[in-house]
Amino acid sequence: MLSTFYSIFMNTTWFSSFLCLWIWSICCLYAVDTVVSARPSSVNIGCAISLSSSIGKVAKIAIDAAIEDVNSSPAVLGDTRLNIYIRDIQSNGFLGIIETLQLLENEAVAIIGGETAVIARVVSRLANDLSVPLLSFSATYPSMSPLQQPFFVLTAQSDNFQMAAIATMIHYYGWSDVVAVYTDDDDGRNGITALADKLAEVHCSISSRAVLKPQMSRDDITDKLVQVGSVRTRIIVLHVPVASGLMVFDVAYLLNMTRNGYVWIATSWLSTIIDTDGPLPAEVRKKIQGVLTLRMHTQDSKLKRSFFSRWKNLTSTEAFSDAPGLNMYGLYAYDTVWLIANALDSFFKDGGNVSFTNVGKLYDGGSTLFNLDKLKIFDGGDLLLNKIEQINVTGIAGPISFTLDRHLSSPAYEILNVIGSEYRGIGYWSNLSGLSVLPPEALYSKEANLSSTTPQLSVVIWPGETTVKPHGWASTDNAELKIAVPNRVTYTELVSMDGQGTFNGFCIAVFEAVLKLLPYPVSYKLMPFGDGKINPNYTELLLLIAAGEYDAAVGDIAIVSDRVTLVDFTYPFFPGGLIVVAPIPIGESRHSMWAFLTPFTAQMWGMIGASFIVVGAVTWILEHRVNDEFRGPPGEQLMTTLWFSVSTLFTVHQEKVVSTLGKVVLIVWLFVVLIVNQSYIASLGSILTAERLTSRIQSARSLASSKDPIGYSMGSFVKDFLIDELRIPSSRLVPLSSPEEIDKAFQHGPNNGGIAAFIGERAYMELFLSTRCHLMIVGREITANGWAFAFQKDSPLAVDMSTAIVKLAETDELQSIYATWLTDGACSSTGEVQLHADRLELRRFLGLFIVCAITCLLALIIFFAQTVWQFGRNNPEASSGRSSWSDLLQRLLAFLDKKRDIKPRKKRKRFEEISNQIDADE
């Protein structure tokens, strides 16, 4: 019965499961049939491009091929056909807007267009209102934001990344400034703004801008390039439309601006021309030799190679006199069509429906001009836009997916060098890997970790057919740099002018040596600054440089915070710093009556005292049983022990040590005492000597807190430093113009109208002290940034000079120049006196005390072992266990206190024989 019931239950269960599965299958088939049946037979998309431009004519062929491929592939849209309506905007912005409006009237679900920034910006606003996605493969200018234009989608790489690549190149080659030549339209302005931002991130800048009219003429280009040629920067970034770029190079070639020394970096417009129209005529090629350009990088794949092979067949059917080459915009145009097709397929699978809503006039009371009332809102626009944003497919240009800010993922550029009749790739740039000679996808797949020694770019053939990297800066033709030189009266070893108007000195010698290390000649003229009677004011000199009266200044010019805002300084060629000079005092030590404690620190004194006690106690333990001098009443033994340990310091102890262990401890202790004693004497003598040579003025800070008058060099920055930084009243400051005046001021002293100290720059003071042994440097040097050459703000020469100064410092030549002009005198070795000798710390003697402690410990262990053994021999009952512990302890202490005879055995035996003989005789 039970088995029968189980059989019926199982059969019923299987039947129920089968029935449910059958019903579910019918529902799914019905749902699929419903979805499929909901798809329209065709979907319209629009395209507004210029069919005569280098970008448009290639894009049109690619788009037609993509439409054909999509409609022939049932895997994408099934039976739905993709219709496209292409309008020729003829490179006219106004016509582009009109044609796009007409496409929107044809119930297009998406528009491919916005070829330029102007068209994209205007049409995208209308696309927002009508909920129709606007996809552009050519409006790459970086200011279009998804927040402002939510229905605009850029399907190519943004110029924001191209400008980042250029900025990285500028930084890589060590240049600091560039000249930007661009058109005065949205594409040009926004692109150069992005370049300026990216250059700022790598501490570079745009030093000059040449803005061309959108409809530029040769005269307009000539005027602007003449201005570019008048500036010293030779790094030129050219960001212009494809149609105008070669005209700029034509004019630049005539102006001799494509020769050796210039660097031209053309944005992707040049690579587009080369890919589309190449090979270029010889007349054109010679004008762009050595130019660097960028091209959007697309990954190598089977799809890409197949499309390139197919391109010749595609162009042979077109009505072109010269078949255009395939440029990168053609690849992205082809992928844009497939992107729309895949997004529509996902749109239909999610139940999307192609329907439109008539809106009449877009704005209440608006005009009906251009039949705007016929425009319709795409009801499924938001869903289709969402599907476009979520797309993740692979096209002929590589993977197609978008970031959160709607940029193509992993943007990259190829860097090309125009050489001969073709161009050569010298490297790549990616926002993830930076510059590299390897393709970005190779780095991603291998997760390569490029070391700093790996070349980031290959060798470049620069304009003028040279592989030597241009320095990026040059003097203007027939123009000399006006360089001011301080006409010093004192310390002429630094810089001076002789009667014939020739400048010489340490600073001039360094300047001439640095110029020899520059990779280019510099035309300059040295001009004196000052009347030759008093030293000039350097701040006034730098103000004249900032005003443009001088180009630079060479001399002993200190880098000060106030001066940095006026000019650009090079790397310091001489270390700076302010020092305090004061008379050497002859007098007694100023230490207190406890000066004798100074050589040792408190920890050291504590260790010495503890060691005396420990060594004395150990010696008493070892000598108490065998030495009568360490026996007696407790008070007498304590005094004997203390006296013995302390007297070892002076080696005058009279107590003899009898035991072997005691002698070992005493030897080690006497060695410790010898080292400590000699160190104390040497340290105390050093402290007293240094104290005797120490001025009562210990530093600039202590001088500031006093009321003594202070001298400084007239015309230097020292006065402002003392007032602003050290808060010294100006009434205490005494301006002195010559070494003789400084000598007299020191002779008079602070109480007789003189000075107590003088604060000046180290180089001056070393020369001053070389023949004045009665003065010395006190305290520490006040930090400063040294001496440097000064140039006008944003001068590229300042950077090149800094590099040359560093190279000069790496050789012996700079030291040789210093030795030639600033040789140390007789008293310069006096130097800076150490105010406080180092006190002897415990850590310096810790090993010595550890050896002594180990010796004492081992001696005690051996002593107690011998004592216990002797106690066991003399007291056999102690080992039998019949006595209590307290009794044994008392007997052991008594044994330790008992005097032990340590006479030699031979003598003892001889003494016993004599005693026995005497007893026998009696």
Automatic annotation (TrEMBL):
UniProt KW keywords:
Disulfide bond, Glycoprotein, Ion channel, Ion transport, Ligand-gated ion channel, Membrane, Receptor, Signal, Transmembrane, Transmembrane helix, Transport
SUPFAM superfamilies in the record: Periplasmic binding protein-like I, Periplasmic binding protein-like II
Domain Ionotropic glutamate receptor C-terminal, residue spans? 482-824
Transmembrane portions of the chain: 569-587, 594-622, 666-688, 845-869
Chief location of this protein? Answer: membrane
Superkingdom in the source lineage: Eukaryota
GO cellular component terms, alphabetically, are: membrane
**Which PANTHER family would you find in this protein's record?**
IONOTROPIC GLUTAMATE RECEPTOR (PTHR18966)
Q: What does this protein do?
A: Glutamate-gated receptor that probably acts as non-selective cation channel.
- What family does the Swiss-Prot or TrEMBL record give for this protein? Belongs to the glutamate-gated ion channel (TC 1.A.10.1) family.
What name appears for this protein in its UniProt entry? Glutamate receptor
- Which species does the entry assign this protein to? Kalanchoe fedtschenkoi (Lavender scallops)
Query: Where is the organism placed in the taxonomic lineage, from the top?
Result: Eukaryota, Viridiplantae, Streptophyta, Embryophyta, Tracheophyta
